[in-house]
Design a protein that fits this description.
80% helix, mainly alpha, single chain
Length: 424
């Protein structure tokens, strides 16, 4: 064969393709990818309007409040379990296919909720199906968008987590009014349609950056520092004490945060004797603070380190949990729930960069899914703690005393977590 017509070696073709992808990526506006991730997280985060459904569903189903709130606990358990499997799909098929699977499950779940006549149907619809949909979607935007922003991981995580908490700000009061007018079942279907439309707008905008991508202006020194971090596989991570401390810390903060997001309306009505509409307005205010906490903590993580941010958050939670008995008026219950809501949002934004800094970025999606199991256990634990407190004292104060003690342990753990040395 003529040497001039011989095909170049395959590795040369691959190198040329990678170079072409990198050149194309430099022309890509990475903020468009950010916008897509923001929309997806916003639409998914509408699940946090759940608390405005609690009392209406208790009345509609003729069930105990603990029976209805169990649906949210099931969702919090389904999300991290499904995320483990979804992370495998994400690695093989990319963020768009993974998110589309989530859309189908999410809408199916809301549809079942709209037909619910028993708590069991609510468990299937909201707990299992909506939870599975969130599990497929939630783990996609952060690793996808941060692949375009290796220089701003904390800020990006904060923005995306802010989007995840914005939904209740805009819709809690509106949904409460619709529920009063049309009933909770119809509003479930409306919310499902709104979430699906939003996701279908955002998903086409997200895609992974090519391997080796570096944004303009990112110095070689910063890149070298990032490359020095050992990339822990999930099996390696599970064998470290750092994983178990991070898991426990996330469990503690989720007990507090999910108690508020899942029960914010009934907590407000019980502690301060408020109406459902007044309580819904507090849920919206708490959501604003939750979102602000996400953005502020995410940006602060880039400046002072995610570990320091997490330590500060735990200390604030300790103070406000131990003084929760003072939350007995509209003003005080708003302040206490808003501060704790901001802390929860801040923790959600600080954890992704903490995990990336501790275990590396390469296997982040799967590693985070295992740590996110604490989100599910936190939902179950918070439901049990609150039910016990209500049964024993008919108030929520004892529950927050227990969670305050857990946060004190979390504050200690946060000072002990260091980047593990790789095993030889």
């Amino acid at each position: 064969m003529d040497g001039h017509n011989a095909r170049p070696p395959r590795y040369t073709d691959r190198a040329l393709k990678e170079e072409t992808h990198l050149e194309t990526a430099k022309k890509q506006n990475r903020w468009i990818v950010m916008l897509g991730g923001f929309i997806c997280m916003f639409a998914t985060g509408m699940i946090y309007t759940w608390s405005v459904y609690v009392n209406p569903m208790v009345e509609a189903l003729g069930a105990q409040k603990s029976d209805v709130t169990l649906a949210f606990s099931i969702l919090t358990m389904a999300v991290p379990i499904v995320m483990i499997f979804a992370s495998k799909v994400l690695q093989k098929r990319g963020p768009r296919v993974t998110c589309l699977i989530g859309v189908v499950l999410l809408f199916a779940g809301y549809f079942v909720c709209s037909r619910s006549t028993t708590p069991a149907m609510l468990y299937l619809g909201f707990g299992v199906l909506v939870g599975s949909g969130v599990g497929f979607i939630y783990g996609c935007p952060v690793p996808t968008v941060t692949s375009w922003f290796p220089d701003k991981k904390g800020m990006v995580s904060g923005i995306l987590m802010t989007a995840y908490g914005v939904g209740p700000i805009l819709f809690s009061t509106t949904l409460s009014g619709w529920i009063s007018a049309y009933g909770p079942n119809r509003v479930f279907l409306i919310q499902g349609c709104m979430a699906a439309v939003g996701l279908l707008i955002g998903i086409p905008l997200i895609k992974n950056a090519p391997a080796g991508y570096r944004p303009e202006g990112w110095t070689p020194a910063a890149a070298a520092a990032a490359s020095d971090i050992h990339q822990f596989r999930t099996k390696e991570m599970l064998a470290t004490p750092q994983f178990w401390m991070l898991l426990a810390m996330y469990l503690f903060t989720n007990c507090v945060g999910l108690s508020i997001t899942g029960n914010g309306s009934p907590i407000s009505q019980t502690m301060a004797g408020l109406t459902a509409l007044q309580a819904a307005s507090i849920v919206s205010i708490v959501s604003v603070c939750n979102s602000c906490g996400r953005f502020i903590a995410g940006a602060a993580s880039d400046r002072i380190g995610s570990r320091n941010v997490i330590s500060i958050i735990f200390c604030i939670c300790v103070v406000f949990c131990f003084t929760f008995s003072f939350a007995d008026t509209f003003l005080t219950v708003t302040i206490w729930l808003s501060v704790l809501g901001a802390c929860f949002g801040g923790m959600m934004a600080s954890y992704p960069p903490m995990i990336m800094d501790t275990f590396g970025t390469k296997y982040y999606s799967t590693n985070y899914a295992f740590i996110f199991l604490a989100y599910g256990f936190g939902g179950l634990a918070s439901n049990g703690i609150i039910s016990t407190s209500l049964n024993a004292t008919e108030t929520y104060v004892m529950a927050f005393y227990i969670m305050g003690g857990a946060c004190l342990v979390g504050a200690v753990f946060s000072r002990l977590v260091k980047r593990p040395a790789p095993r030889n």
